[in-house]
Amino acid sequence: MLFEKLERMELSRTSLSGKVAVVTGAGRGIGKELARAMAWLGAKVVIAEIADTGAEVEALIRSEGGTALFVKTNVADENSMNRLAKKTLKEFSKVDILVNNATI
Predict the structure, then answer these.
(1) N- to C-terminal Cα distance for the chain?
(2) Per-residue pLDDT tens over the stretch 40-53
(3) Has residue 91 got a pLDDT over 80?
(4) How high is the mean pLDDT of the chain?
(5) CATH says 2-100 is which class?
(6) What is the value of pTM for the model shown?
(7) Rounded to whole angstroms, how far apart are CA atoms 18 and 60?
(8) Residue 85 burial class via C-beta count within 10 angstroms: exposed 0-12, middle 13-18, buried 19 and up
(9) Coil, strand, or helix at residue 49?
(10) Which residues are CB-neighbours of 3 under 8 A, at least 6 positions away?
């Protein structure tokens, strides 16, 4: 249903090709759907999530043909955020889009 809506909006499946998106709070709800949508549009997506559900979202995006990386992240912890940045840059070398969806 989500992807049908994106298609109706006439968005190309490569609209975000070559972009790297980090989505905090992407383990469920709006964050999860934003991560899926960005992957569907061609972005490589980093799922920054405190709960282990982030691994399920990573697997879901990959099963849908996207590129995803789950990094267990507590946005209220500076060390955790530094680890997120290091893992993201090691894997993808850059960040183009940051969606701050997590709550503190």
Answers:
(1) 30
(2) 999 999 999 999 99
(3) yes
(4) 92
(5) alpha beta
(6) 0.89
(7) 20
(8) middle
(9) strand
(10) 40
